[in-house]
Backbone:
């Protein structure tokens, strides 16, 4: 089960292979950010079934909402 703060990889679509952090979940959709192309003010909407969990979780949802986009992109690049 995917949760907010999980690091996921897209397995379908034109962004296949791109790594994101789940910023929000609504029904069967996840809202994804990567800090570079998809920022917090305009997250990517993607179906949960098109994502693969990378078994890494960002610390907390509360902390994720307070981060700047460049901090998110730096975290993902270090993986």
Residues:
């Amino acid at each position: 089960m995917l949760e907010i703060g999980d690091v996921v990889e897209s397995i379908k679509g034109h962004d296949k292979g791109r790594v994101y952090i789940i910023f929000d979940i609504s029904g069967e959709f996840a809202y994804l950010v990567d800090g570079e192309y998809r920022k917090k003010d305009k997250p990517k909407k993607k179906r949960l079934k098109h994502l693969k969990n990378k078994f890494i979780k960002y610390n907390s949802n509360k902390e994720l909402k307070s981060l700047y986009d460049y901090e998110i992109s730096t975290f993902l690049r270090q993986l």
